[in-house]
Amino acid sequence: xxxxxxxxxxxxxxxxxxxxxxxxxxxxxxxxxxxxxxxxxxxxxxxxxxxxxxxxxxxxxxxxxxxxxxxxxxxxxxxxxxxxxxxxxxxxxxxxxxxxxxxxxxxxxxxxxxxxxxxxxxxxxxxxxxxxxxxxxxxxxxxxxxxxxxxxxxxxxxxxxxxxxxxxxxxxxxxxxxxxxxxxxxxxxxxxxxxxxxxxxxxxxxxxxxxxxxxxxxxxxxxxxxxxxxxxxxxxxxxxxxxxxxxxxxxxxxxxxxxxxxxxxxxxxxxxxxxxxxxxxxxxxxxxxxxxxxxxxxxxxxxxxxxxxxxxxxxxxxxxxxxxxxxxxxxxxxxxxxxxxxxxxxxxxxxxxxxxxxxxxxxxxxxxxxxxxxxxxxxxxxxxxxxxxxxxxxxxxxxxx
Length: 401
Ligand code: FAD
Fold this sequence. Notes:
FAD/NAD(P)-binding domain; five-stranded parallel sheet; binds flavin-adenine dinucleotide; globular; 23% helix; Enolase-like, domain 1; alpha/beta; 3 domains
């Protein structure tokens, strides 16, 4: 095999490139990215980079020398437009045509846009890339009013940074609690309290109906009511970039469908990261939006491309930083899980374990790294632990593993 092409120069793309070379792949390697930047980490965008505590140079996942040393040709600012599976070529937006023997799709996701009146007004922001933060940051002036639409991770992380900068923050959420899609009710209650203690105002059951303003946004319309604001941040989820796969006739289902070897319905085309739906640890299929998944699945994809396939069934994990608190999550929680509280939320150090049929299935830990680390091990081992022991702080968490 002589030519590998990677579409998408992000977390998964660069990991696959690194693994391919580390595993001895010696052929041509090209990575195509439609952003102008070499691969960078996104988590700091809504945290330290937005707050100004991290300089842009620190975002990049590899030094420039990496691409020369690994002979990875980077084609940036160029989109892959079409895959021709019969001739095994990828057509690029600059007119070039790249032949491949094996192809990796690592196209990630894009923000879900709100199809509302006024959504295109200046002062209405979304957050996915470096440029989004660079245009948002100058709005972080003490006393300004920020309306955040969506109380998911990104909305809450931006709310935390803005509140710390002295802005008046209102978070609008259609559900009746924060992080409703991913966190337990106990966690939601804790984070809501935490944000309120920093002056953040919440409006639940509130769906934005439109943005009002002349040259730029001045207010949001919600349930017939007008909520004035100086700017708005919309964080209502993402959409997987799978059109290029769909148009090539690959199976897609809430993302590019791959098996446990990161292989698509075409044995020469692989996919990794946010853009995939894949067999989940613990059963079923899942599409994950996390650094862990991008890295681990890309490693498995690279191995599979080299004929060394090993099944990808890692315990998913994720984190979020808000104020001085770190939330760490392992496993995939379900609303039907039995939840067990360990520690005291009032002390700002606690965790919620999720049991499914007695088996530890997920853990959410706030400033409780040992609970998270041991929790991950328990999940991987499909351990059965009595709820009373999990809840009992006199039982050292390490002794549970
Ligand atoms: P990406 O990093 O999105 O890379 C995909 C790249 O492919 C993009 O540059 C895209 O423009 C490009 N592309 C798409 N289509 C084409 C095409 N046709 N041609 C060429 N290029 C194309 N995860 C965590 O685990 N913890 C966190 O705290 C966390 N915080 C986050 C905060 C923010 C603000 C954001 C946006 C994400 C956060 N994430 C977090 C998620 C994490 O960043 C993603 O899961 C990860 O970046 C996924 O990597 P990826 O390579 O699949 O996709």
